[in-house]
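To: structure subgroup
Subject: Chain for Friday's discussion

All,

I'm putting the inputs and outputs inline so they're searchable in the archive.
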Amino acid sequence: MAHKKAAWSAKNLRDSNPKYRGVKIFGGQHATAWAILIRQKGDKYKAGKNVYVGKDFTLHASVEGVVSFRKKKVKRYDGRKYTKTFIDVLPLEEQSKKAPAKKTASKKTVKAPAKKSAPTKETAKEPAEKTWAETTSMTVKDLKAKAKDLGIAGYSTMKKAELVTAIDKA
């Protein structure tokens, strides 16, 4: 038996499979019942309300709800105090009671341009190049070209509705 390795052999070409540990559902996110919240080795995170621990220290949600993390000081067997992170799942009913109702964003309504009065014989102008309905049927590329010709500032970053209203005002 040789006491030296062969020239092309290597010693450490072994690798283990990944364990995919870590937080799977973060704070504020919705968790279904029995969902895996955290995979961990040891008990870095402790089980809080509506959470149970699996045999490999995996934390699971026991009810459907919203995940929350909290820090708490814990006393060890020898009297030392240290901070641990607890993970809780607040049931949907409880969550709605605790959190105040959020204000819903009001939707902006796009108003059609005001109808102009019919021109009289004295103030008769040439008819507009295109009406509002024809302008809305144009593509964004055509609208940007028209806005450029009219000298509208900031036309390149406008959306279609903004371009239509800007062209109608010009």
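Points worth raising on Friday:
Residues 122-128 have pLDDT under 50 and may be disordered.
DSSP finds four helices and eight strands in the chain.

D.
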